[in-house]
Design a protein that fits this description.
- The structure is a single chain.
- The chain is of the alpha/beta class.
- It has a single domain (about 1-125), classed as TIM Barrel (Alpha-Beta Barrel).
- It is about 35% helix and about 25% strand.
- It has five helices and eight strands, in the order E-E-H-E-H-E-H-E-H-E-H-E-E.
- It has helices spanning about 20-25, 35-50, 60-70, 80-90, 110-115; strands at about 1-5, 15, 30-35, 55, 75, 95-100, 120, 125.
- An eight-stranded parallel β-sheet has the order 1-7-6-5-4-3-2-8.
- Strand 4, helix 3 (about 60-70) and strand 5 (about 75) form a beta-alpha-beta unit.
- The longest helix is centred in the middle third of the chain and has 13 residues, at about 35-50.
- It is globular, with a radius of gyration of 14 Å.
Amino acid sequence: MLIIGHPWIKSQKLRKVFSIEDIKNAQADEVVLLEPLVDSHTFAQYCQGNSIAYAVVTTSLDDALFANALGAKYMVCEEDMALMIQPIAQEYLFDARVLVLIHNAKEIAKIARGGIDGVIFAEAIYG
């Protein structure tokens, strides 16, 4: 299970971006975070075409399918959406990892029991 943003574990930070210029200004050790694909598919295409690691907020199964096809590294979603996406991600061997946004460590075990790829603490996202 991936755990991103916990103080005990060194991990990448996710930077919210809202333009191609924001993407270009991201540091090499950051993963850019895009809004749902309906609003950011051109940014996803840019990232894919330039080998830039990115995550995308995922609010539907369609978003997840397209995010994986567009080379997303992570799909960040709420727990109920993650529980719907994860079995499909496993069936089709997605390269993208499903992450649930959490606010405290007590949530980790619950998400793990659901078989989700990982969690990301809200503190790991900035910008």
